[in-house]
Amino acid sequence: LWRVVGRGRWAWCSILVDLRANGGAIMKTNRTWARTVIVVSAAAVLVGGLMPGCVQRVERERLLADSRSEGDRALRLGKFDEAAGWYEQYLEERPARPEVMYHLGLAYEGMGEPSAAREALSVAHELDPDEPAYIEALARNMAKNGETDAALDMLERIAAESMRADAHRRLGRFLLDQGFADEGVRVLRAAAELDP
After folding, report:
1. Distance (Å, rounded) from C-alpha 71 to C-alpha 74?
2. Tens of pLDDT along 129-181?
3. What span, in angstroms and rounded, lies between the C-alpha atoms of 188 and 87?
4. Nearest to 118 by CA among 135, 142, 101
5. If we measure between CA atoms, which residue out of 181, 120, 187 comes closest to residue 160?
6. Which of 30, 143, 160, 172 has its CA 20 to 30 A from that of 4?
7. Cα–Cα distance measured from residue 81 to residue 107, given in angstroms and rounded to the nearest whole number
8. Which residues on adjacent β-strands are paired with residue 5?
């Protein structure tokens, strides 16, 4: 019994072969032998047609994984230009990946390109608005670019809409970092009341 596993023509390209042995003999009669040869031949033609596409897809996936891991490595080592190049290469094939957009934003920040960083971090936040790392990075970037009021507005809106302690703590820490000690402490107390 031959069966292609997966979805669509370029799926997993796996073929399972299950030749049932009957009493230790695979083929008992000539008719069984003829049927098996036909099935094996048809499967060989099918595999021959699927393999080039499968190989290309596997190679593309490997290159994408390499791009991302090389970008992560370069970012960790502080090679921001290199990291940005790898992430951009990845995003050409897989746009709208929030975690990669976030890392691209960090790379741009490291390169001293605040506008590009803000754009990438904004996209990451739009794609996954509940991810704390994206919110914090975007607010930090906005403050560095002189948009402290816009960052505060964003953090206050998130805190008010979510009524979650972590959103209030994030806002309180941001206020403290920006030199608004009284407001920061007030917001942190409100966070403690939300999550005692």
Report:
1. 5
2. 999 999 999 999 999 999 999 999 999 999 999 889 999 999 999 999 999 99
3. 36
4. 142
5. 187
6. 30
7. 7
8. 14
Length of the chain measured in residues: 196
- Cβ-Cβ contacts under 8 Å for 186 (sequence gap 6 or more): 172
Token reading at 111:
């390169």
- Cβ atoms of 170 and 135 within 8 Å: the answer is yes
The alpha carbon of residue 29 and the mean position of all alpha carbons in its chain are separated, in whole angstroms, by 54
CA distance 88 to 90: 5
Q: How far apart are CA 83 and CA 122, in angstroms?
A: 19
Say whether pTM exceeds 0.90.
Answer: no
CA pair distance 104, 127, nearest whole angstrom: 14
Give the C-alpha distances (Å, rounded to integers) separating 176 from 134, 179, 184.
Answer: 19, 5, 5
Ramachandran class of 20: left when φ > 0, alpha when ψ lies in -120 to 50, beta otherwise: beta
